[in-house]
């Protein structure tokens, strides 16, 4: 085993964008509790906060929303590129390729907020376009009377979404907009630090997000609950996994050593959304039993649900297909990435760590 692993504990940059307080289970965006923002503010308002550092006035919000709406359409060359990709190309690879091809000279150094808005606006349209082209269904063009999240649901389903679905998905998206120096944000900042362009940095971040250790997938939680099947089966199923030293999906986190505040907020949303859904009853039971058994099998490790556990419930309740879970996470996290790129550009120094040579010297 190499003695230097994963940059754990290394501070790579100073940031004023978010605070991830793992000991106390708090997540702050620019000083505001993310869970409060998710309840009381819109996607546009919180994206503005992350990008500009303050909540918008009414006029600023209107201007920002309009700019997002104007950048939703996919250019023809990207449609051609998407259509050339083999059918079995996964959505994250499609997204990485399509976003990369946005990068003409208008995106050259130095990144600015208008570049950020363009890439934030177009990602949901790319996902929806590909979703329809692969399923041979009609792609409904972006609807400019709808806000960002409502328009995403509209483009996916071809019908006006209910206000409950919009609120639920926007809560999830706000809670996942930003999360400190995670792997994809680090990738984005490292690329930009060479004074490369914003699109190259976002392309790198999408590649990083694609890996199962990061973008993960709440779909694994859904698969786990499907396998458990019934409340009666839960304890035996969980014990057999833990006896075999397998992980319970949706539990544990590198930073949070108490309840992940995003999970707490999403649990509330899914309870409001799903009412008496037996699937949710099972999820609640699995959470309770897992915490008890994890404490028995892994005492002192402080393992609780992470963001993925109840994200699965919210995604399921808004009828999001499983293959779009990680792309949807990407559609929100791109806001955090671009906020970090603007911050990096303001006080840039090339990222250039060292490696410890352990090979032969002669
Ligand atoms: N189930 C059972 N045991 C667990 C779990 C779990 N979900 N998570 C951690 N542990 C145990 C480990 O086996 C380890 O035990 P040990 O001390 O006996 O070796 C101890 O707790 C510490 O765990 P690590 O894996 O070292 O913690 P790390 O910080 O490296 O990993 C991670 C965090 C990857 C999230 C891990 O908890 C995990 O694999 N969870 C399950 C998968 C999951 O839910 N992923 C989504 C993460 S959220 C996100 O990425 C957006």
From TrEMBL:
InterPro entries xref list: Citrate_synth-like_lrg_a-sub (IPR016142), Citrate_synth-like_sm_a-sub (IPR016143), Citrate_synthase (IPR002020), Citrate_synthase_AS (IPR019810), Citrate_synthase_bac-typ (IPR024176), Citrate_synthase_sf (IPR036969)
Swiss-Prot/TrEMBL catalytic activity: oxaloacetate + acetyl-CoA + H2O = citrate + CoA + H(+)
Query: Gene3D superfamilies attached here?
Result: Citrate Synthase, domain 1, Cytochrome P450-Terp, domain 2
User: Which keywords fit this entry according to its UniProt record?
Assistant: Transferase
Instruction: Name its pathway.
Output: Carbohydrate metabolism; tricarboxylic acid cycle
Q: Keyword Transferase on this protein?
A: yes
- Keyword NADP in the entry? The reply is no
Q: Which Pfam families match?
A: Citrate_synt (PF00285)
* Similarity comment text for this entry: Belongs to the citrate synthase family.
Protein name according to UniProt: Citrate synthase
Classification lineage:
Bacteria, Bacillati, Bacillota, Bacilli, Bacillales
């Amino acid at each position: 085993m190499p003695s230097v692993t994963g940059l754990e504990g290394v501070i790579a940059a100073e940031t004023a964008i978010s605070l991830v307080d793992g000991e106390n289970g708090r997540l702050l965006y620019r000083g505001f509790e993310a869970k409060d923002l998710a309840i009381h503010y819109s996607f546009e308002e919180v994206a503005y906060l992350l990008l500009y550092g303050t909540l918008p006035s009414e006029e600023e919000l209107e201007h920002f929303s309009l700019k997002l709406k104007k950048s939703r359409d996919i250019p023809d060359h990207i449609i051609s590129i998407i259509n050339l990709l083999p059918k079995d190309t996964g959505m994250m690879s499609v997204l990485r390729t399509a976003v990369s091809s946005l990068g003409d000279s208008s995106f050259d150094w130095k990144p600015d907020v208008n570049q950020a808005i363009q890439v934030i606006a177009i990602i949901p349209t790319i996902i929806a376009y590909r979703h329809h082209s692969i399923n041979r269904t009609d792609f409904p063009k972006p609807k400019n009377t709808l806000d960002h999240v409502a328009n995403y649901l509209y483009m996916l389903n071809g019908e006006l979404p209910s206000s409950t679905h919009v609120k639920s998905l926007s809560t999830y998206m706000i809670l996942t907009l930003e999360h400190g120096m995670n792997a994809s944000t680090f990738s984005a900042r490292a690329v930009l630090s060479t004074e490369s362009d914003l699109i190259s940095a976002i392309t790198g971040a999408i590649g990083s997000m694609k890996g199962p250790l990061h973008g993960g997938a709440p779909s694994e939680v859904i698969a786990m609950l499907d396998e458990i099947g019934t409340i009666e089966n839960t304890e035996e199923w969980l014990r057999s996994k833990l006896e075999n030293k397998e992980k319970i999906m949706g539990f544990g986190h590198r930073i949070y050593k108490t309840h992940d505040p995003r999970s707490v907020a999403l649990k509330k949303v899914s309870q409001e959304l799903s009412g008496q859904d037996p699937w949710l009853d099972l999820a609640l039971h699995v959470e309770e039993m897992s915490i008890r058994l994890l404490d028995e099998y892994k005492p002192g490790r402080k393992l609780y649900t992470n963001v993925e556990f109840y994200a699965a419930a919210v995604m399921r309740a808004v009828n999001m297909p499983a293959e779009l879970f990680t792309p949807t996470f990407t559609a929100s996290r791109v806001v955090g990435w671009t906020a970090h790129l603007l911050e990096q550009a303001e006080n840039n120094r090339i990222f250039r760590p060292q490696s410890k040579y352990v090979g032969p010297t002669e």
